């Protein structure tokens, strides 16, 4: 069906098909990139510098007219797809009514409705409260503020390979030096890092419970349980390499936290909102966090983040202690309500599970053919593979970069991640249609075959 732009022009909807009309990046993207170099700080970089003109569903169209398959969703943000109709409608109608008053000055209903919705969807049926912010890092900062305030303790425990943001406190919480932390110190104090459960790299046969004991012993020995305000963990790590802890790890850490008066905070900024085939990754093992941070897919592309948690903790902070000018912006809140409505209506939990099954069906045989694919892991529509030197577990970031580059050249947006830069991750919009997913995975298969056939000598 043709759609109408704001100017009243009839346009054809973007076809859900890959279509390349120039080399990538094309001439118009290259021209923009030259202007960018002269205008944009070089510290901000792009992994695939094709400049976007428009996007719909799982297709991104660049300024040269190339239609690319998006297997990254803007880092797990547009799970409902680009230009999801409900989100577009909600944003347009909210922006026409009012775009900002500041919730701390004169409040409005959409903020309250987002909080009600998050309290209902998040794990656990206890009394909850939510506060809204702008970015993931800001949500994490506020979770730590709340945990410290209500416990009267200072230490924050985080894990190897963790990623929590780029602000001063969240840089301290993030594990990887390059590019996130290098020479940006001094970092916030009272942050302690303990080993994560990383089945591919842990000693053979180490269970989740054993990995939890390893972490807990270190906390007790090096920090002291009584000093810990919160344990902060991504239930499946994102930037760190889609590390899925062994079963039993999260429940054991959560149980220890409860017994020790430590706030257990789950960072579901990347894993949240149907991505893993559940509303939240914690749901898979029935883990109920005291505090939960969300962002990214929450508002389908508008900047919005949240801390949701136990009412007694959240309400333990004095009035005026939490906030910010833009936090819970009404347009972002309208987008969030429409995104969540889309997730429910389109059964994106089911979609994430089917995507996961389809991806595994392609990746498993590939792994059998290529010993350089050391590990395939993930859950739902959050799948990844770790590229290593064949016959070892030694990371191969060079081959990883080549595979990603070959996908880009063929018009498929894929992202890498991992502490060692050797993980290729797939985060497609959950509304991607089967044919497009198959085409995207074909391109990935071709890229892997081309690069690893050369590397496996
Ligand atoms: N916590 C688990 O995944 C953001 C970062 C990309 P912000 N991940 C993408 C980059 O290189 O900056 C993230 C996350 C988890 C926190 C954050 C931070 O969210 O919205 O980027 O601040």
Summary, kept brief:
The protein has 457 residues and is an alpha/beta fold. It has 13 helices and 17 strands.
Give a verbal description of the structure.
With about 450 residues, this protein is an alpha/beta fold. It has two domains: about 180 residues, Aspartate Aminotransferase, domain 1, CATH 3.90.1150.10; about 260 residues, Type I PLP-dependent aspartate aminotransferase-like (Major domain) (Aspartate Aminotransferase, domain 2). It is built from 13 helices and 17 strands. α4 runs parallel beside α10 and α11 packs parallel to α13. The chain is globular, with a radius of gyration of 22 Å. The model has no long low-confidence stretch (mean pLDDT about 95). Ligand PLZ binds next to α5.
List the helices and strands and how they pair.
Elements: E1 3-4, E2 10-11, H1 27-39, E3 52-56, E4 59-62, E5 67-70, H2 73-76, H3 85-97, H4 109-121, E6 128-133, H5 136-151, E7 155-159, H6 168-173, E8 191-194, H7 208-222, E9 228-233, H8 249-259, E10 263-267, E11 291-294, E12 305-310, H9 311-314, H10 330-345, H11 348-369, E13 373-379, E14 382-387, H12 397-409, E15 412-413, E16 415-417, E17 423-426, H13 434-455
Parallel strand pairs: 5-15, 7-8, 7-9, 9-10, 10-11
Antiparallel strand pairs: 1-2, 3-4, 4-5, 6-12, 11-12, 13-14, 14-17, 16-17
Helix pairs in contact: 3-10, 4-10, 7-8, 11-13, 12-13
The structure holds ligand PLZ.
């Amino acid at each position: 069906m043709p759609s109408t732009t704001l100017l009243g022009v009839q346009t054809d909807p973007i076809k859900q098909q890959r279509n390349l009309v120039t080399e990538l990046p094309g001439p118009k993207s290259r021209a923009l990139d030259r202007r960018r170099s002269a205008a944009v700080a070089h510290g901000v970089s792009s992994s695939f510098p094709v400049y976007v003109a428009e996007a719909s569903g799982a297709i991104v169209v660049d300024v040269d007219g190339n239609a690319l398959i998006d297997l990254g969703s803007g880092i797990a943000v547009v799970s409902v797809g680009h230009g999801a109709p409900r989100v577009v409608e909600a944003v347009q109608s909210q922006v026409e009514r009012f775009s900002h008053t500041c919730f701390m000055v004169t409040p409005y209903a959409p903020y309250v409705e987002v909080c009600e919705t998050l309290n209902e969807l998040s794990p656990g049926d206890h009394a909850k409260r939510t506060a809204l912010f702008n970015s993931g890092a800001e949500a994490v900062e506020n979770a730590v503020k709340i945990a410290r305030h209500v416990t009267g303790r200072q230490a924050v425990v985080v894990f190897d390979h963790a990623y929590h943001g780029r602000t001063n406190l969240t840089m301290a919480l993030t594990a990887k030096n390059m590019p996130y932390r290098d020479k940006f110190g001094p970092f916030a104090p009272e942050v302690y890092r303990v080993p994560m459960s990383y089945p591919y790299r842990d000693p053979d046969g180490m269970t989740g419970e054993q990995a939890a004991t390893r972490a807990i012993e270190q906390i007790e020995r090096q920090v002291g349980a009584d000093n810990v305000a919160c344990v902060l963990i991504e239930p499946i790590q994102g930037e760190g390499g889609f590390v899925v802890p062994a079963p039993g790890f999260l429940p054991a850490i959560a149980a220890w936290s409860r017994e020790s008066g430590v706030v257990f905070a789950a960072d579901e900024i990347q894993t949240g909102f149907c991505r893993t085939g559940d509303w939240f990754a914690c749901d898979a093992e029935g883990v109920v966090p005291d505090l939960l941070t969300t962002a990214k897919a929450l508002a389908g592309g508008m900047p919005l983040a949240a801390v949701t948690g136990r009412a007694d903790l959240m309400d333990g902070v004095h009035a005026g202690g939490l906030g910010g000018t833009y936090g819970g912006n009404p347009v972002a809140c309208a987008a969030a309500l429409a995104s969540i409505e889309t997730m429910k209506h389109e059964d994106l939990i089911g979609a994430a599970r089917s995507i996961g099954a389809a991806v595994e069906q392609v990746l498993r045989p590939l792994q059998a053919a290529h010993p350089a694919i050391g590990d395939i892991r993930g859950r739902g529509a959050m799948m990844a593979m770790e590229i290593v030197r064949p016959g070892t577990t030694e990371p191969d970031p060079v081959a990883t970069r080549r595979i990603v580059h070959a996908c880009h050249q063929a018009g498929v947006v894929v992202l890498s991640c991992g502490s060692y830069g050797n993980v290729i991750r797939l985060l497609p919009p959950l509304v991607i249609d089967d044919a497009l997913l198959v085409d995207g995975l074909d391109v990935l298969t071709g890229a892997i075959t081309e690069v690893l056939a050369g590397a496996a000598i």
